[in-house]
Amino acid sequence: MKISLLFVLAAVAALGIALRAPLAVTVLGLVAFGVLHNVLELRYVAGRFVLRRRLLFVLLGLITAIVLCRLAYLYVGEPARYAEILVGYGVLAAACVQALRGWRLAAAVLVLVVAAVASLGFPGYHFVILAHLHNVVPLFFLWEWAGRLARPGVFRWTQVAWVLGVPALVLAGAFDRVLGGVSGSTVAAFAGNPAPIIAASAPPDSSTLVGARFLVVFAFLQTMHYFVWVYFMPRHAPEAPRFLLGWRAWALGGGLGAALAVLFVIDYASGRALYGAFASYHAYLEFPVLLALLLGPAGAGGSQLVFRETASERQVPAAVS
Q1: Please, which residues bridge with residue 251 across strands?
Q2: Largest CB tally within 10 Å, which of 5, 167, 231, 306?
Q3: Could you tell me the pLDDT band of residue 313, with boundaries at 50, 70 and 90?
């Protein structure tokens, strides 16, 4: 109950600032915690889950291609985005080939082909969905983490409430009367034209009101995303990391974040583009791991995709009892 209350309080605070200053929360949150949460999330995923070596090398190769696509977008434009879409579906296909067999694999490939065609036809929607989906990912990791609790139900449904319930209320207009502005702020002056930032979180051709709602949802989920990876997991899942133990992860994340912050101040657009490129590693690596969580440790066809640490995962840390 105590740990669930912690998330309720964090969600209330995150929603309050996201409603009043969504642009500031989005921009300043990225500058302050973007790189650090990358390092801490990768540390957790690599320590808690172990991908088969061959699959890991394939995924790293594909994701590196995505990094190059994002960097190339600065010079070649839309063709790089289409290439990223194709390689992104390649990441999912590689995980499916490893985890599934028979008709399940055939069905998964068919779904991926249909989805890829839709994404190529509507790339604007594809990247908006991808941006929000990344912020929803903590739900799955927190749901799995809760397996160590004696009574995980309250904790798990608390996560569902803030990940899905709060955004649904925002998009339905429940908080329109208290929405803050998304332009004309000092942050807009710092980040330049706010339109691309809003466009990255809202469907193409959205009205001003709908765009503001989606920006609030993105700012809220991004803030909670950082809360999970920068505060909660390092504190309440201490047994997971295998590398970058202790202060080393914080030093690496803080040092890289400070260096990138300088670029953000000099040229926000370039800083965001560089961050977005190298953040691909943690963003795209999540999906094969999530697939493994949904299929189970051995996958639906008996081909092991990922296995989990078991030595202490059922021990409940005193801090969360």
Answers
A1: none
A2: 306
A3: very low
Cα–Cα dist 280/81, whole Å? 13
Taking phi first (over 0 means left), then psi (-120 to 50 degrees means alpha), and beta for anything else, what does residue 179 get? beta
Q: Which residues contact 68 (CB under 8 A, 6 or more apart)?
A: none
Residue 195: HSE in the Cβ half-sphere, 13 Å Cα cutoff: 5
Closest CA to 174 of 24, 15, 11, 14: 15
Range of the domain at 118: 2-320
Cβ neighbourhood burial of 273 (10 Å; 0-12, 13-18, 19+) = middle
pTM comes to: 0.86
If one counts the domains in the chain, the total is: 1
The pLDDT of 42-49, averaged and rounded, is 79
Amino acid at site 270: S
One-letter identity of residue 32: A
State the DSSP H helix or E strand holding residue 221, giving kind and residue range, or none if neither.
helix 208-226
Give the whole-angstrom CA distance, residue 48 versus residue 205.
41
Residues in contact with 153: Cβ distance below 8 Å, sequence separation at least 6, in sequence order: none
Fill in the amino acid letter for 158.
Answer: T
SS3 string, 109-126, reads HHHHHHHHHHHHHCHHHH
Q: What is the pLDDT of residue 179?
A: 83
